Amino acid sequence: MSREAGLSWLVSRIRPRAGRTMVAIDGVDGAGKTSFADDLAAELTDSGLTVIRVSFDDFLNPPEVRYAKGRTSPEGFIADTYDYERFIDDVLEPLGSEGCGRYRARSYDFAGETPLSPPWQVAPDAAVVVVDGMFLHRDRLRNARGRKVWDLSVWLQVPPEVSVRRLAERDGSPSEVDDPRIARYVEGQRLYIERYHPAERADLVIDNT
User: Fold this and answer.
1) 89: which DSSP letter?
2) Which ranges in 51-96 belong to alpha helices (H)?
3) Gap between the Cα atoms of 142 and 173, Å rounded
4) Whole-number Å distance between alpha carbons of 22 and 150
5) Residue 94 CA to chain centroid, in angstroms?
6) Which residues are within 8 A (CB) of 5 and not within 5 positions of it... i.e. 6 or more apart?
7) How far apart are the first and last CA of the chain?
8) Model confidence over 69-80: pLDDT tens digits?
9) From the CB of residue 194, how many other CB atoms can be counted at a distance below 10 Å?
10) At what angle do helices 160-171 and 183-196 cross, to 10 degrees?
11) What mean pLDDT is predicted for residues 9-16?
12) In Å, what is the CA distance from 20 to each residue of 16, 80, 86, 93, 127?
């Protein structure tokens, strides 16, 4: 499905829903997750809905945890990049259909490598929570502590070559998929796709090339 058709499809299915709605926008690095989630949030807001935007990148672990398995470890990239438990405690559980609504949207500042403790916020009962990030179809996030989390989920499909090229343009990282300096990330994302089959688990797959 195209990007434009996907946005329309999502809005048409979210608008009639009652209560809070949890939406996951997943994809590899450079897939365009943040911009797609922002566009979806804007369309939902324009339609009169209350939207809460959360990025999984705001729930990083500190570097000593992120690189505990080594700076080149693909396993470490999947397992240790994010603070899964804090994300579940601060976002997924309180903003779920049975949650209290008291949430915090950030726990870490990557630029300053600093933990954060922002004030708690309270979500309205009918808010749409749009979350972007990698690895959102992992078992521990799809069914956090035994509960189904995502009401709707999206997988943004892009080839590895496109992902790496976009990251090179954005961050100045190497532009070749087989460059050993980015093997941790390329291989980690390949392992994620191989193990968790996000394109099969998602409600919607969008070609975001």
Assistant:
1) I
2) 63-66, 74-80, 84-87, 93-95
3) 31
4) 5
5) 17
6) none
7) 11
8) 999 999 999 999
9) 8
10) 140
11) 96
12) 11, 29, 20, 12, 5
Please determine, for residue 68, whether its predicted confidence score (pLDDT) is greater than 90. yes
Mean per-residue pLDDT for 49-68?
98
Using DSSP's 3-state secondary structure scheme, residue 25 falls into: strand
- Domain-wise residue ranges, the chain: 3-207
Cα–Cα nearest to 192, from 151, 142, 145, 131: 142
At 46, list the tokens.
Answer: 């324009």
Q: What is the pLDDT of residue 166?
A: 86
Q: Assign domain 3-207 to its CATH architecture.
A: 3-Layer(aba) Sandwich (3.40)
Secondary structure class of 5 (helix, strand, coil): helix
For residue 84, give Cα distances in angstroms to 88, 142, 156, 204: 6, 12, 21, 24
Average pLDDT score over residue span 105-130: 97
What amino acid occupies position 80?
D
Q: Which amino acid is at 198?
A: P
Can you tell me the distance from the alpha carbon of 33 to that of 161, in angstroms, rounded to the nearest whole number? Answer: 17
d(CA 91, CA 99): 9
Q: Are the C-beta atoms of 42 and 27 separated by less than 8 Å?
A: no
